[in-house]
Write a structure and sequence with these properties.
The protein has twelve helices and eight strands. With about 375 residues, it is an alpha/beta fold. It has an eight-stranded mixed β-sheet. It is globular and about 75 Å long. This is Glycosyltransferase 2-like domain-containing protein. Pfam families: Glycos_transf_2. Keywords: Membrane, Transmembrane, Transmembrane helix.
């Protein structure tokens, strides 16, 4: 009969292996894989009509700055179709200015969530190239031109812009987006496509677009539509979208991570072909490492801690129990700091107290995102 100690040892080893893989799998793949030069597909031409879709919910106060960032933008020949897709009632909607070369219209929808507002706007649009951009993302000069230009290559199916945080108090978020930008640049070299996206500025060919299901990360789903169709999902660092820091309190950091992880896993569930190593090779491996293994880290860490503690208690390892208890106490203290500061701006804390509670809330949010996904929860509202 298998002993309890052996079962705990195996469980601890598995947990530690998963935790290590979660941290190292994607970086090691991108280091060890040889560079990939995608073959150019014939017949590439710049898309004609372009549609820019901006979903709006709750308040339109940020719309004036958004529209102002469109002045001086270039997108090729023809006029730009701009659709403001409202999800339910919107207050503070400004008077729409007259933008040269832009045909702007407002599409009013019942409140059903961002995915429904985007789907309705696509159905009402006429562009060969569909661009999506969040309301609070201001477009840097040349952003639209850079996004449209990459579609001159027939092999490109979708594209994602680079994010820059446009406020000095968003240092932590700025570092995060800088890291994401470097990761995407590396993925382009090793994979030819990227495994993550953002909604600040995203584009896809109309022929590749599939209606966005409820409860998914829309930008990831849109990008994977291109991958599943055999096209590339590319990063365009020359196209810059300026964003304010997305979450200013630990409560919002936790809620945002929980929502994103649940929706991201649901996006993979709706695009299982993208995870097929047989069809997509190294890209599928990187996608699994990035969107599944990476997010398993907090679960593996918790399992490893519990099993090692149980082994120590079972074998009478006093010092090990004390060490693990000390680590648990440290985690509890960080949790207390995080709980006391859930509604405070962590940017105003001393630097030494900022990172640990932030990381704790991020990983707790990831764990709860898994919980929501596994019990079939769909997060459809903003």
């Amino acid at each position: 009969m298998v002993s309890l100690a052996l079962l705990l040892t195996v469980a601890a080893a598995i947990a530690i292996a998963i935790a290590i893989a979660a941290l190292l799998a994607l970086p090691m793949l991108l280091i060890l894989l040889p560079e990939r030069r995608p073959e150019a597909m014939p017949g590439g031409v710049l898309p004609g009509a372009v549609s820019l879709i901006v979903p709006v919910h709750g308040s339109g106060a940020a719309l004036a700055a958004k529209l102002d960032s469109l002045r001086g933008q270039h997108w090729g020949t023809g006029r730009l179709e701009l659709i403001l897709s409202l999800d339910g009632p919107v207050v503070d909607l400004p008077v729409l200015p007259d933008l040269p070369g832009v045909d702007c219209r407002v599409l009013r929808n019942p409140r059903r969530g961002k995915y429904a507002a985007l789907n309705a706007a696509v159905a009402a649009s006429a562009g060969e190239l569909l661009l999506f951009s969040d309301l609070d993302a201001r477009l840097a000069p040349g952003a639209l031109a850079a996004m449209v230009a990459v579609f001159a290559e027939a092999g490109v199916g979708a594209a994602c812009a680079r994010v820059a945080v446009d406020r000095e108090d968003g240092l932590m978020q700025a570092r995060y987006w800088d890291h994401e930008g470097r990761l995407k640049t590396r993925e382009m070299v090793q994979l030819g496509s990227i495994t993550a996206s953002n909604g600040t500025l995203l584009a896809i060919r109309r022929v590749l677009f599939r209606p966005i299901p409820a409860g998914v990360v829309d930008d990831l789903f849109v990008g994977l539509c291109a991958v599943v169709a055999g096209r590339r999902f590319v990063f365009v660092p020359e196209a810059v979208a300026l964003m304010p820091p997305p979450a200013r309190t630990l409560r919002r950091v936790f809620a945002r991570q929980r929502r994103i992880v649940c929706r991201g896993l649901n996006a993979l569930r709706h695009c299982p072909q993208a995870l097929s190593v047989r069809r997509h090779g190294r890209y599928a491996l990187a996608l699994i490492a990035h969107k599944v293994l990476r997010r398993a880290f907090p679960l593996a860490l918790a399992l490893g801690f519990v099993t090692v503690l149980a082994l120590a208690l079972l074998d009478g390892g006093g010092w090990l129990v004390l060490a693990l208890a000390a680590l648990g106490g440290l985690g509890g203290a960080l949790g207390l700091v995080a709980a006391l500061g859930l509604d405070r701006d962590p940017g105003r804390w001393p630097r030494v107290l900022t990172l640990a509670p932030w990381a704790l809330c991020v990983n707790a949010g990831i764990a709860m995102g898994w919980y929501d996904f596994l019990r079939g929860r769909r997060v459809t509202q903003w």
